[in-house]
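User: what does the whole thing look like in 3D?
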Amino acid sequence: MSHLGPGKASTSVNGKDQILPAIGGPGGGGGSSSSSGGALRYPSNGKTIYHRPLNRSKTSELSQASFAYLFSEMVSYAQRRVTGIQELEKRLNLQGHPIGLKLLDLLLIREPPRSQTRPLNIITLLHFIKINLWMHLFGRQADRLEKSSDAATPDEYMIIDNEPLVNAYISVPKEMSQLNCAAFVAGIIEGVCDGAVFPARVTAHSVGGKEEGEMWPGKTVFLVKFQPEVLEREALIGKG
Amino acid sequence: MSYYFAIIGTQDNPLFEYEFGTSKQGGDGQPRFTEQARHLNQFILHSSLDIVEEVQWTNGQLYLKVLDKFFNNYISCFMTGSGAKFLLLHQPTAGPGSGGSAAAASGLGGASSSISASASASSSSSSSRNSTSIGANPTSPQTEEAIKNFFAEVYENYTKAIMSPFYKVNMEIRSPVFRQRVAAAGRKYL
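Assistant: Here's the predicted 3D structure for the full assembly of 430 residues, as structure tokens:
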């Protein structure tokens, strides 16, 4: 990306004919606005995204039925043109990733100013995910947080949800028993981790339903595997 | 007193920039950077990114206060949760109006001695008033509070900007409404 000249009209980064939201408009930077692309269009009620408050957590609950409907469409959309379950999960993961990136800032700004801090180590980040992110998405905390007990994989952490909301109305056929559609949620978690500069791979695994009469047949483990540089930095910060 | 504000993305890429002047003490809100200083500002601002990267892991606060100083240029930083940096370059003025920036530019090789001479002539009359202003002392609690409020307001609008489903990480922010909001925050606090 070229550097923006001082006060000049901003150079287009992504090409001129990209579809912009009504608020985006052509870049009118520093006085001289670009002439291409037509006039800026505002929504009919005159309210752009900037006129809306960020703190509307009270009335922000959505209908689970409509979510389930949309989510089933997302899964079948992802299912098109894929050859295997892994690829399908990858696509679901990619759908969730940008949501995580955006939620990180939204959730931070909704915190009371006193506790508005960036997560600096793995534990605070995972607590942020377990508590804040889960509360925002599902209205409750995640059920458990675990560190891998295997000494060979100190970079693996597990977030456990006994009953993922996204899987409530999903029945996986026998031949696809490896599939867990909570890969979408794994993508959101991965987005949060990446956004907070803790690059990680997050995958969703079903662990319930192995035994008869089990309490949580839909139990899902989100396996968070951090990149080696995260652990390296963690060790350095811990020393300092 | 002039300000240069920039938002830097996670790949050290500029997302947004804006120049403005103080609106306090009868300022007209216009930046008084010389043409040369404006180019230099970008260098000074970006060179502080190294320090930001060090400090960001020792201090979990979003607002990192004044991080860097280059002659008379002070850099304040605010780091968002998702790794974007808000950087504000401010030049405290010894005298009113353009005196400070012109003097700084001449110190860096600019030839604007006539301007700085006239400014310094008038500075003696109002220097006592300026010593309590936001601009006069960049590390005073009042200044830090004012900049903090400015950053907080920009952060709110930045969060709204990235909430747009069409916005991807590290995309340039081109919304004129966002620019207006930043300008309004600058007028209100600085």
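In plain terms: Residues 95-131 of chain B have pLDDT under 50 and may be disordered. The longest helix of chain B spans residues 141-163.
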